[in-house]
Amino acid sequence: MSSMPERADRTAVDPKAPDATAVVDVAKLEDLLLGRWADLRRSARALAGDPRFTKTEGLSMADHRARVLTQIKTLAAGGDVLRAFPAEFGGSDDHGGSLARFEELVAADPSLQIKAGVQWGLFASAILHLGTAEHHRRLLPGAMSVAVPGVFAMTETGHGSDVASIGTTAVYDPATQEFDLHTPFRAAWKDYLGNAGEHGTAAVVFAQLVTRGVNHGVHAFYVPLRDGETMAFLPGIDGEDDGLKGGLNGIDNGRLRFDHVRVARANLLNRYGDVAADGTYSSPIASPGRRFFTMLSTLVQGRVSLNGAAVNVSKLALVIAVTYGNERRQFAGGSDTDEVVLLDYAEHQRRLLPLLAATYAASFAHERLLETFDGVFSGRDGSDEDREDLETLAAALKPTSTWHALTTLQTAREACGGAGFLTENRLVSLRADLDVFVTFEGDNTVLLQLVAKRLLADFGREFSGIDAGGVARYMANRAADAALHRTPLLRAVQALSDGGNVRRSAGQLRDAQTQRELLTDRVDTMVALVAGALRPATKASRADAAALFNAHQHELIEAARAHADLVQWEAFTAGLARVDDAGTRQVLTWVRDLFGLSVIERNLAWYLINGRLSAGRARTVTSYIDRLLGRLRPHAQDLVDAFGYGPEHVRATITTGAERERQDEARAHYRAERASGDAPVPEKSLPRARPALAQPSPGARPVGTENLTAAS
Amino acid sequence: MSSMPERADRTAVDPKAPDATAVVDVAKLEDLLLGRWADLRRSARALAGDPRFTKTEGLSMADHRARVLTQIKTLAAGGDVLRAFPAEFGGSDDHGGSLARFEELVAADPSLQIKAGVQWGLFASAILHLGTAEHHRRLLPGAMSVAVPGVFAMTETGHGSDVASIGTTAVYDPATQEFDLHTPFRAAWKDYLGNAGEHGTAAVVFAQLVTRGVNHGVHAFYVPLRDGETMAFLPGIDGEDDGLKGGLNGIDNGRLRFDHVRVARANLLNRYGDVAADGTYSSPIASPGRRFFTMLSTLVQGRVSLNGAAVNVSKLALVIAVTYGNERRQFAGGSDTDEVVLLDYAEHQRRLLPLLAATYAASFAHERLLETFDGVFSGRDGSDEDREDLETLAAALKPTSTWHALTTLQTAREACGGAGFLTENRLVSLRADLDVFVTFEGDNTVLLQLVAKRLLADFGREFSGIDAGGVARYMANRAADAALHRTPLLRAVQALSDGGNVRRSAGQLRDAQTQRELLTDRVDTMVALVAGALRPATKASRADAAALFNAHQHELIEAARAHADLVQWEAFTAGLARVDDAGTRQVLTWVRDLFGLSVIERNLAWYLINGRLSAGRARTVTSYIDRLLGRLRPHAQDLVDAFGYGPEHVRATITTGAERERQDEARAHYRAERASGDAPVPEKSLPRARPALAQPSPGARPVGTENLTAAS
């Protein structure tokens, strides 16, 4: 992982420029990135690099599942994985620290991480948060120790995102003081459940609670599933294995069906809703809607930790691609003897470095999310608004970082060519395992719509005194007015004519306040415009309102993405302020600028259409990005080294130094051959007997094969 | 595969609009898409759906390899896979038809297709095209029958795209009339070779031919590898298995090393370069460069067939996602009783339908490529320029269609949610296998640079009489001038003011000539600008020229992409002209428009910055795309049905009608419950004892969990 190759010609150092002297303090930057829970992360990484926990590639599904089950039992015994649980049960009441550790497990094997998430983050956590003291005493120890591998049986084949509409019912029978748990049709089978395929001996099952003829909505029930010895399903229970998946095959996902299974009244996890022996329902939360959301709100920890895991995997991917890109050579450039290092190619920089910048942004944003989570779950920041902010932040960041991880893994894989396709180089394996992160624990597209709704709600509160027409007029004026009254710096940027000084205008784009204004303005404007368009929905029929909403679904999602970009940028900028080493701050500022301008470049058409950037300024965005790529290229290795991963985490053959050794050996071979004078003479350097024939005609050259010699 | 769901509210049919009556003639459209080699494609599809050849998911690598080896032997015996070979050896001299059939095999198992490609498209084909009559008689029969599973040993660990720089040497020894084949260092090991891991008993090895102290460049040698009985490597040969890969694990890729292996002089495949007994070198092609390109030019058939396979896989992915999207329901929309079909969501349409349009474009473009290929390889169109056009066309389309296939597979997988992640639904399996298509047989990024060079060369010829300054001035004027003198229709579009009639301006965007002008102008302008920027390279030092080229690498690649977009659009438009059924033509015209405008929308910033579109017109692009999505939505199922695949090719559980049955059963259950009067009453519909408590406060609702009920 150590490497500092020479700069490419196009990025030649100007000794007077600040980049000539900027040096990253890698150790300090690593500390900054590890953040508040650095020590816990380091100890979790020690486990994640331990051969007992690392993924063995190529195992059969059965062997992989067995291995992961053994691993989580080992972790339960000594892996400090129970921090989030109460001290009285052996935990530490440490919510943020627990997730910080959990996220690091992804470097061992994503299957292990997710299996651990099913057991402790979902199954045991549901007992803790939805059950009461008796449940904790009776059920938590087995769930925590994995004596009882557990299933979190919420999703059904027919209902994933829309949990409120699940079909499974639990009808209370006062005669026996039991619930009748039943799956009424095929679409109501529980599905995609970790531990359901093989290992689970109990489940927390979500079902519509019906008593005295009233459906009180979705509640959770603790249900024994299998005989712990024979592993046969208990009477009335049936299931199917989900079988092979695109990844995460160390987890035994499966389906469950209940045929009038009797569940003791005491097994209703009754913190938010209870049924008396006579069938009387009671709840501390009167509103069924609010009760439902409260019961599901612990799910946010899944999103928080997936966000962290996705960021970690993006880092691993970039360690691999940047290290290889700094060692691998291909095609002679301006030299007769040395081929060009891949990362010196401008396109290679264009592919990898913006992803590196976005990974830094996602990393800082994740730290903010985890701190927010810790505040809420510790009770320090316990207001409804705090909880709402946490939910929105998680819903904004999880889609952004999980899609980013897939893009980064794929780009890294392609940047490593055929070597990237070999499992021994890790990228394809990680990509396969991370794939489902974009649709589970909240489908990304669904989550972004939630974020958009929150943005609309906030906007609605802000403009509650103004009527619909007023908002529309306000926004129309605002959108049409290039010199935005709320953004003086933007106006200053725009005041430069297209033919103005490029250096000066790049200087302004690099100004943090300019980037902030551009990113903020986009979110505000998009939200206001869509809010205006949706106003009529409040007075429309349900069908018309749904149609209107659907007609603007894409804009809503785009507004939420823009919001997530802004959140990441703000978190990055706040993180920058904590850097005291001048060289590190300089380089990291370029990284932040590259992130901000890449977001702006991606949405350049919006800025142009809405009069926020002139054509000349828009060109400057791209040319300044090119400058930043050149400046950052010599620091790329430091920037990935600062992620702090060792070879035991990266586990890719091409980053072991093997490629550098091969390149050195090959160059030494040719150097020795040249020195010996024994090298064969190239035919093309010989004088020709028939020069007329030897002259290649440009038109006659099959162009398509040129790639084989002349790609750069 | 048959379905015609009701339209979404937002796309309600206007009975006077043409879309109300447009009906696709699915059978005719299928014929059109199958193209010139429809009969051969149909018979190949019969094999591709035959259980003997379809992929068995979840096999171990060893079992998968063994199965695929058996499969290609079965194909050799009766699969009509030898059409491209000469009649005298049992073939049909049918190049286009052979590839058309070959492409269809991807639906059986991509490993089978690629293993077949290694055996016949590379190994046997090299004997045919690089060898002479004696080689054909002696070596072709075994290669064709798979009696000799063969390796195409070109790529080395250290050199993939840059074949001219491979390190393996073959030094002629007149004393024994043998070549000394040698791997001088680790980076010169042959690598990533199909059949090298286990099954190959011979190889065509590419090495630097050295005789009498002169290196005549890369030549091909026929080299026995393993004992056909024991499968042990022959003396001096060693190898390694590449092991598990991200996909295509039915192929035994591996590495080979030669330690002074003696190769008989007769085993030099000597069509383009020969060595006499005394060591005298001769060649019918005097220029070493041209000779090299000629020897490699048969590789183009790999790119052509990968292009076709990628298009076929994109079609399969869309059959799955569109069929499921037409059956799967989630979230209540405007109705109390029926949930909304996924494809009625605007975002779902936005995700899938532009990919459907691009798949149609890629399909028509592939037919054109295959016809070009057939013309060249049959000798009908045998000029150097024809061959050059073929190479450029393949280099433009292969990157476009292979990246498109990965995007389509992933989008389809996400659009199917958790079900998409199950291997039984095929998408993850296809994606894993197709991944390497973007970097093998010519790395996509490298190929696009070739295309750019050809575009520059053509531009250079066109402007050969004008000096550098003249070109720069010409382009500067052209780029700055919104009313382009060469594009009167564009001027007409621009002449509309931003506040103009939206319907009329959408009408112009739908005009084929307008789309053509916009797409063509972008290619021409990008090429001219980069050509101007690169002019100084002709007078610069080699290092400076390389640096200048590198500084513009990204623009070159973007220009090539733009060219590929245009080629696809033109092929689509030409294909449209062959449709005589009015309804089909109408719908297909919308598909073409959606493709064209999606390309323009993707590059909207370019059109705005360069003054080709006003802000108002740019908005119209997006709003017209929205209209097209609504128009096409009711035809989506017909458009995927016309791909002509049966369930034996699709092999995804969710497209068997299972989802529709589940939805029907669930809706019938609730209907019956409502009709019986026994349905439990929802708590929220009851009068409240404590209305104050029951009133949810908007601020107190945890927003993050809303996704679970209110995603649309």
TrEMBL record, chains A, B:
<dbReference type="GO" id="GO:0071949">
    <property type="term" value="F:FAD binding"/>
</dbReference>
<dbReference type="InterPro" id="IPR037069">
    <property type="entry name" value="AcylCoA_DH/ox_N_sf"/>
</dbReference>
<keyword id="KW-0560">Oxidoreductase</keyword>
<feature type="domain" description="Acyl-CoA oxidase C-alpha1">
    <location>
        <begin position="297"/>
        <end position="456"/>
    </location>
</feature>
<dbReference type="GO" id="GO:0005504">
    <property type="term" value="F:fatty acid binding"/>
</dbReference>
<dbReference type="InterPro" id="IPR009100">
    <property type="entry name" value="AcylCoA_DH/oxidase_NM_dom_sf"/>
</dbReference>
<dbReference type="InterPro" id="IPR055060">
    <property type="entry name" value="ACOX_C_alpha1"/>
</dbReference>
<keyword id="KW-0276">Fatty acid metabolism</keyword>
<dbReference type="Pfam" id="PF01756">
    <property type="entry name" value="ACOX"/>
</dbReference>
<keyword id="KW-0443">Lipid metabolism</keyword>
<protein>
    <recommendedName>
        <fullName>acyl-CoA oxidase</fullName>
        <ecNumber>1.3.3.6</ecNumber>
    </recommendedName>
</protein>
<dbReference type="GO" id="GO:0055088">
    <property type="term" value="P:lipid homeostasis"/>
</dbReference>
<comment type="similarity">
    <text>Belongs to the acyl-CoA oxidase family.</text>
</comment>
<feature type="compositionally biased region" description="Basic and acidic residues">
    <location>
        <begin position="658"/>
        <end position="676"/>
    </location>
</feature>
<dbReference type="GO" id="GO:0033540">
    <property type="term" value="P:fatty acid beta-oxidation using acyl-CoA oxidase"/>
</dbReference>
<keyword id="KW-0285">Flavoprotein</keyword>
<dbReference type="Pfam" id="PF02771">
    <property type="entry name" value="Acyl-CoA_dh_N"/>
</dbReference>
<keyword id="KW-0576">Peroxisome</keyword>
<dbReference type="InterPro" id="IPR046373">
    <property type="entry name" value="Acyl-CoA_Oxase/DH_mid-dom_sf"/>
</dbReference>
<dbReference type="GO" id="GO:0003997">
    <property type="term" value="F:acyl-CoA oxidase activity"/>
</dbReference>
<dbReference type="InterPro" id="IPR036250">
    <property type="entry name" value="AcylCo_DH-like_C"/>
</dbReference>
<keyword id="KW-0274">FAD</keyword>
<dbReference type="Pfam" id="PF22924">
    <property type="entry name" value="ACOX_C_alpha1"/>
</dbReference>
<dbReference type="InterPro" id="IPR013786">
    <property type="entry name" value="AcylCoA_DH/ox_N"/>
</dbReference>
<feature type="domain" description="Acyl-CoA dehydrogenase/oxidase N-terminal">
    <location>
        <begin position="72"/>
        <end position="145"/>
    </location>
</feature>
<feature type="domain" description="Acyl-CoA oxidase C-terminal">
    <location>
        <begin position="529"/>
        <end position="651"/>
    </location>
</feature>
<feature type="region of interest" description="Disordered">
    <location>
        <begin position="656"/>
        <end position="712"/>
    </location>
</feature>
<dbReference type="InterPro" id="IPR002655">
    <property type="entry name" value="Acyl-CoA_oxidase_C"/>
</dbReference>
<dbReference type="InterPro" id="IPR012258">
    <property type="entry name" value="Acyl-CoA_oxidase"/>
</dbReference>
